[in-house]
Amino acid sequence: MATERVLNPKQTSSFQAIIKTLFYGNNVRKVSLPECYELARKQPGVIETDHPMYKCKEMGLPTDAKVLVVNDGSILGRTAKARVLVPKMGADKGKYETILREAVYDMGSKPLIYTNAYMGLDPDCMIKVHYLTTERHAINALNVCLNFQHETPEYLEAYEKSVKLSGETDVIMIADPDWKHPDFPIGLVIIDPQHNAVAVLGLRYFGEMKKNLLTFGWTIGVRAGMVACHAGIKEFHLVEGNSSMAVFGLSGSGKSSLTNSAFHEGAIKSDQGEKVTVIHDDAFNIDMAHNKTIVLEPNLFDKTDGTETGSRDIDYWMTAMNQMVTEDANANKVIFPTDIRNRNGRAIKSREWLLNLADTGPMPNYVCYLMKDTTLPPITFISNHRLAVAMGASLATMRTSAENVAESEMNRLVFEPFANPFRVYPLTLDCERFEELFKRGAIGIILNTNKFYGSGGKEIDIPKELTLPMVVHLARGKMETENWPIYPGLMLPQKGTLSFLDPAYDEKYTPPSDIEYHRLLQKRTQQRIDFLAELTRHGEIQERFVDSVRLAMITMDDKIREMEKNQ
User: pTM for this one?
Assistant: First the structure.
């Protein structure tokens, strides 16, 4: 098997022991997928709609199973501030042990259920998950089974034959959404990364369960020598040949839209046999030992703000959350999914919604960082592999509706290394692994999916209608580049290269020559250096990567001084 079911008491921790022991209480019972569905259907507050659940019969569910909707309260996204890592508790470790023991004691008086699921769809990376929660919140147990790989005889057989991940125990998660504590009004997530154990307390949103489980999927992968990727990845099958592209960006950056697009605004020549294969739009590991990528989840947990009522998209749904439900003219309970009720509506849907999909794929030829930085043009090439690591470690983005943050924090530029806020291992490991990836030939690309600082400071939109066909041109290997003199290590498309997409491309998106733009670029670069320098002070990134950005800063400083002299 991939992970070990039996714990070694001499190699465990108090937190793993507290969490694991809860599974054996006389108030706990294991439930199958059909039992999960039936409990969820009857759960107070859950809405049984009249939308048929996709492929329910094939999963062993009732043939008339419907899409179930659950709506959360004030919290509609992930709560990063609730996460506490055991290795960083320090003197507070005893306090958190006491809190967890008390939480588990309270759960002992409630009916509890647990179920098994699996992360990793390849024999080289299969991770077993044990998820326990209150019967009152059975829909989250159902969602764990549907989002990840639920237990089937076929998968169990494959799992038993899979490569053993030495020293890795199964992942165990307990969750009590009704938990309350005066010191933790927003909830508490206790993560023991070394022992693959986590407790989610006082949080209902399913995305919290998903990402905290993926945290271990990535961490176990990294300990096995892989590259952890909170990203999308797809393969292009073009007349010019095949290539693979990984897309890194937080929710709301366009990652899923870019990854899941089948035709790229007509740039894919289907009549000539061209197509794309989507590996996944959110989570995978790159296994450099075997030169492949491995998907961690079989299905999609997608935002639904762009889905219209009656859309064919809903035909592929299994469950949904934070959705408006009403009756149609025939008294059917139907979903209005365009974020009318609240932000961040979501659905678990089958990847079969995609035209072509695969559970594994090649290593990426292109590593694309989605940046929401107005000083950057729509596409920039990174020619220096150390700078490519530094840019990934200081990936610039904005807060989105998928996160539980104040409105004042929304749309504020922030840095999130490799777009992965769920990392629980040293960032230095990511830097080393990505450096190796670039040394092996992967090309670093920055895609700005926001707006660009145009001539005179007038911001110009960068529409997806430009980005989608542009990346196909990139995958064809036909994009000629030239040095960006102001930024050593970065390159821009040659003049005229992208005029076939937009005749005014060069006029709109060529970095302007005015001093105001250069000062803004200087300011943003300094922010990047400050962020990276702070990471070096904490031992999270090596100096050699930061120096690649400092070199660009020297060039900018010289250029601005020259411009000031000529004013």
Answer: 0.94
